[in-house]
Design a protein that fits this description.
Layout: H1 3-14, H2 25-35, H3 40-53, H4 57-61, H5 65-69, H6 78-96, H7 109-117, H8 124-134, H9 144-152, H10 162-172, H11 178-191, H12 221-227
Helix pairs in contact: 1-11, 2-3, 2-8, 7-8, 9-11
């Protein structure tokens, strides 16, 4: 598949993208952990509650898991995430003396990624989010939506694991396109290419998608729009 053609069609469908909002890398990491296995609607209020409860990440590192879990309960999986966040903060403190990740800015992308991946509970997607959104480094986060859409578009072989998916997509998408590729496929997965009942007839890329016709008979977009 032609990546440029894919991105052009998705850009026409979903419009221009806002510039990435930049948190410091540790704040981005905390927010990303909170967003695991939940929606932004739940994770962002949990994040704000966490910031109100603790004046600093140093203070949170010294808190108990119960104290950390209490303000993030609304985000789901509070006990698991509290345990993970405490372990991450304590490990950063152990290695660096205090919970701070600003030093990652000076590292090459591969080294920064490896350092993040060495933290407890930090997988390839979480590391890539911090690298791309906070540090502005060339990394392509592959979440559930991006993974599903990429497989259906034929960009990833069926059965590709999340770890391999990052490697394969970063090899075929130009680094300058990592940010729009991530956001457009994410949005496309939420609106059109859903896990269940994908809306293939309304898809702006169905004419170049190898999966079109698998879920629905091939019909024209205009025919469906007349019935909506």
């Amino acid at each position: 598949m032609n990546i440029s053609e894919l991105m052009a069609r998705l850009a026409r469908e979903y419009g221009s993208l806002p510039p990435p909002s930049r948190f410091d890398p540790l704040t981005e990491l905390v927010l990303t952990v909170l967003s695991q296995n939940t929606s932004d609607r739940n994770s962002h209020p949990a994040f704000e509650a966490l910031k109100r409860r603790f004046a600093s990440w140093e203070e949170m590192a010294g808190a108990s898991e119960v104290e950390i879990a209490r303000p993030i309960r609304q985000g789901g999986l509070a006990r698991i995430k509290a345990s993970r966040l405490k372990a991450i903060l304590q490990e950063i403190e152990r290695r660096r003396g205090r919970p701070d990740l600003e030093f990652l800015r000076a590292l090459p992308t591969a080294e920064a990624r490896a350092w993040l991946r060495s933290l407890p509970g930090v997988g390839p997607k979480t590391a890539a989010v911090v690298l791309l959104f906070s540090l502005g480094k060339p990394a392509l986060p592959v979440d559930t939506h991006v993974h599903r859409v990429a497989v259906r578009l034929g960009l990833l072989p069926p059965g590709t694991g999340r770890e391999k998916a990052h490697e394969l997509l970063e090899a075929i998408v130009p680094p300058a396109g990592f940010y729009p590729f991530h956001l457009y496929l994410l949005e496309h997965g939420r609106r059109i290419c859903r896990a269940r009942k994908p809306r293939c007839p309304l898809c702006p890329v169905n004419s170049i998608c190898p999966s079109y016709g698998v879920f629905y008979p091939v019909v024209k977009r205009e025919q469906v729009m007349e019935r909506v």
